[in-house]
Amino acid sequence: MTLAPVSVRIPSELDELLGTYIKENGTTKTKVVVEALAQYLGLSEQVPLVRRVVELEQRMAELEVEVRGKETASMKGRR
Prior knowledge:
By secondary structure, the protein is mainly α. About 70% of the residues lie in helices and about 0% in strands. The longest helix has 30 residues, at about 50-79. It folds into two domains: about 10-45; about 50-79. It has helices at about 10-25, 30-40, 50-79.
């Protein structure tokens, strides 16, 4: 999918919430806006399923690394 550049102005409060969301979910502003706009327009099925699956797999891998790191730190603290 080719992405066309789009520039919009949004309230600073919304931008802050968006920033928090992307950090917590390991995504990008572009992905959130594309998916939200597709859903708003009733076109969410056009966001390729393969892309969504790949993104979920990447996020799962990141979370697994994070959990393993916390488990390792926890085990070191018990010694």
